[in-house]
Amino acid sequence: MIVLKILAFIFAIGIIILIHEAGHFFCAKKAGILCHEFSIGFGPVIWQKRKGETMISIRALPIGGYVSMADSTMEQILIKDGEELGIVLEEGSVKELILDKKMDADVRGTVSRIELLGIHGEPLEVELETEDGIKTYPVLSDAFIVASPKDRMQITPYDRSFDSKKIPARLLTISAGVIMNFILAIVLYIIISFVTGVPTNSNEIGSVGSGYPSAEFLQEGDRITAINENSIESWDDLSNVMNSLAKQGETNLIVEYERNGIAQEPKACEAYIVLNSYGLSNIEISKEATKKPENNKGVQVGNLGLKYGTADEEMKVSDGEDYLKNGDYLLEVNLCKKDGSSVVESGWQQINSWNDVISVLGNTKEVEWFYYKFYSQEKDSIIEAKTPIYSYSDALLNSQDIVKYKIYLGISPTYHFEFGGCLANAFKEFGSSSLVIFKTLKELVAPSSNVREVGLSDLSGVIGIFDMVSKTVSAGFLSYLSLIALLSVNIGIMNFLPIPALDGGRAIFLLYEAITHKKPNKKFENALNNIVFILLLILFVFVAYNDILRLFK
What we know:
By secondary structure, this protein is an alpha+beta fold. The protein folds into 4 domains: 83-160, no CATH class; 199-271 and 410-415, Pdz3 Domain; 277-391, no CATH class; 419-552, no CATH class. The protein is 36% helix and 29% strand. It has 11 helices and 27 strands. Strands 18, 19, 20, 21, 22, 23 and 24 form a 7-stranded antiparallel β-sheet that branches. Strands 3-4-7-6-5 form a 5-stranded mixed β-barrel. A hairpin with a 2-residue loop joins strand 6 (125-130) and strand 7 (133-148). Helix 8 runs antiparallel to helix 9 (477-495). The longest helix has 31 residues, at 522-552. The chain is elongated and about 110 Å long.
């Protein structure tokens, strides 16, 4: 299974980078720009092969890729007047300019003049001083500069360089990677939508989740007619009833249903409930958690996603400290919130049902936290925890399209194919994915709540993506395609942020040139790009470190 996960990760990252760089490469070639290298990944070369003018490379670090487009100044920097140079001729014209003194050459001499750009239409030529005097040799437009047997670079006449092209062509070339990422995402969302179809508004069940209590009696094809005496005739009715029950924290349901048109005996069923603002749920409670507190007080919790601390500080549970685990019972809470510079406490409140959980903790809007007492399965005793649990604010949940609380019966509607509806769903999914990313960036830069809830430590890198891919592979092929689409949107948007060293930063320099009709200082641009690139590498290491910590947690 681990081999499958690794292959799935490599394919997901590889296809996103390949599509992105292919966009740059295609537009560059159409514009007549010489591309020295097309690389997937950075760092040491794993595999390399020359195809036409371009070296195709796969490199060791899967953190991106690049298309090395020809620069209009590189050759003049490499070869200067007064340097010793060897040349290899082809029908009287220079095919190779040899910098390595140990390599064979048809002619060797000292450079007295060299022109490899032809900015104003000058002929490409090199003037060598040899024992026989000074002679001028024409240079082919596709000649190579050879620094060593393994280091060859095709020269770039000015008309083949990136700088020589008009601003619209350069802007399209820079933007093409992002455009291709968006196209990839849309295509994948269309495939997913066409395979799954669009939901019908019938009260008929399309599928039942095997891990849910409802799976003990409900089947595909059954029709839900009522829940807790609320009549249901459509899927919209079902959604409205479930949303209403979620607000009440009601997890004990009486389900009325039909099978093959015949009404069945109503069944009592527990629903799964999640309070996402605090990461509390009753999902998949451990089967080994059989002990109960006296008088059956409290609510038994299942899988948890808790964050410890207060509005001002995230904390870690101290070694040896007892804290809430799957199967334990939450008994009492003391809710705290900030009021200016002071902290207001609600005092200890009894928790006897999920209705209490929702009514006491579900009204959180800003970042709040609570101290709690719980019954520990492990210790078979009631414990007052020392480290509080804090919430996410409504603003952050909304930015991620996450509902604050929800109950799950574990059933899905029936689906049918409808061309227009499927297409609309695909574009809607693309828009939602893009919007979530922009909202997340907004929360990262300018938080909506009174505290910063999203920081650099919450970002995920390559290791975090591998973890997500691993989990998604187990959920099925369509979930895997959906993740690739989301990552493609994410990488496209991130690449087009106005940050030097990224595509968006380069686009800003082009817009500056278009507005001022002045080319930006090349040395300044390159220096700024290099500095930011180093900072991005440092950020990559920091993010990878946090990814590893999350995996161990």
